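Quick one:
INPUT:
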């Protein structure tokens, strides 16, 4: 594979995306921008402990960024990573070159 990412890296990313709640979280970050975890709990109707679990998976996959201010954590979409997973770069791994 002529790529900087391994198949294992892609597996982690696709597993992170393979959950309805995590997709909802990503959607809310797209719509609202940077948001406090306390506000996100209300928006996605989830207890903070469960939300933290999903946020960690998205963070480990690189799809979101975290910033801590005092005792609060703020999350935002990592657009570069999301754009890369949706790019031609990945699609080229699974297509043949035909002329």
């Amino acid at each position: 594979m002529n790529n900087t990412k391994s198949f294992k890296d892609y597996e982690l990313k696709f597993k992170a995306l393979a959950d309805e709640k995590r997709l909802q979280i990503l959607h809310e970050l797209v719509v609202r921008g940077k948001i406090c975890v306390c506000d996100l709990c209300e928006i996605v109707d989830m207890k903070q402990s469960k939300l933290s679990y999903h946020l960690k998976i998205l963070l480990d996959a690189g799809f979101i960024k975290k910033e801590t201010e005092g005792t609060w954590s703020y999350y935002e979409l990592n657009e570069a990573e999301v754009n890369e997973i949706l790019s031609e770069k990945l699609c080229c791994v699974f297509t043949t070159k035909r002329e």
